[in-house]
Design a protein that fits this description.
The protein contains six helices and 15 strands. The strands form three sheets. Strands 1-15-14-8-5-2-3-4 form an eight-stranded mixed β-sheet. Strands 10-11-9-12 form a four-stranded antiparallel β-sheet. Strand 3, helix 3 and strand 4 form a beta-alpha-beta unit. It binds ribulose-5-phosphate (5RP). Ribulose-5-phosphate binds next to helix 2 and helix 4. The site of ribulose-5-phosphate has 17 residues, from helix 2 and helix 4.
């Protein structure tokens, strides 16, 4: 996948439209988790993200009349859940490509660029997204923003580089903190950065990727969503992001 210019975001008709005003955030997450099944080919290998929205997607995968042949998972947490449902989990190294990767987001902007990593799984999420032809983002409407950055930007960093990476963010005007008590599945700390207004997500992702010790930054701009299924009070909105 590349980060070419966006031509347009198109909005499809609302699926499950109706009066969903009383729905909780978790019910909206369940709605989009189920809707994502429309993008999954029975018998295929699917890429599976991490988080509470994806947990609903995994439940829906388990209920498919003809199931997937297997999944490539982005976290220990999702792997355990998939296995509990008897869905075989394959190693990313044993797969050359995936038709689709389904994952949540902490924020998504009008171009399909995302902040991810609230669940500390960003590195493996980006690896699985890189294998996929299509990234389907599933999110409730609270995740939709005009400009990324209100949600603190997660960055996975090798321990000995943490102080230097934090200084670099301070120079940029950010307020970095080490996420307390958290190590990723890869054994590294997460630095969360508040106070950034990410108006050029591709450029910022590329810049932070160059800093020594950064394992992965939670800007998904070069691996942005192709489609977002957004759970709203009027049903599931399908937002498609055309690429030039
Ligand atoms: C995990 C992620 C999640 O996709 C993101 O945090 C959204 O989570 P949820 O679906 O629980 O709101 O990036 O690293």
């Amino acid at each position: 996948m590349d980060g070419g210019p966006i031509v347009a975001a198109t909005r499809g008709p609302a699926i499950g439209a109706g009066d969903n005003r009383g729905m909780t955030q978790d019910e909206l997450k369940a709605l989009v988790g189920q809707a994502a099944i429309a993008y999954v080919q029975p018998g295929s290998i699917v890429g599976v993200g991490t988080g509470s929205t994806v947990n609903h997607f995994i439940e829906a995968l388990a209920k498919m009349p003809v199931r997937v042949a297997g999944a490539v998972s982005s976290s220990v947490q999702s792997t355990e859940r998939l296995k509990k449902h008897g869905i075989p989990v394959l190693e990313a190294n044993d797969v050359t490509s995936l038709g689709v990767y389904v994952d949540g987001a902490d924020e998504i902007d009008g171009g399909g660029h995302m902040i991810k990593g609230g669940g500390a799984a960003l590195t493996r999420e980006k690896i699985v997204a890189d294998l996929a032809e299509k990234f389907v983002c599933i999110a409730d409407e609270s995740k939709k923003v005009d400009v990324l950055g209100r949600f603190p930007l997660p960055v996975e960093v090798i321990q000995m580089a943490v102080a230097q990476v934090m200084r670099r963010f301070e120079v940029m005007g950010g307020q970095p903190v080490v996420r307390p008590g958290v190590l990723t599945d890869n054994g590294h700390p997460i630095v969360d950065v508040r106070g950034l207004s990410i108006t050029d997500p591709v450029a910022l992702e590329c810049e932070i990727n160059q800093w020594p010790g950064v394992v992965c930054v939670g800007i998904f701009a070069r691996h942005r969503a192709d489609v977002c299924l957004l759970g709203t009070s009027s049903g599931v909105q399908t937002l498609a992001y055309d690429k030039a």
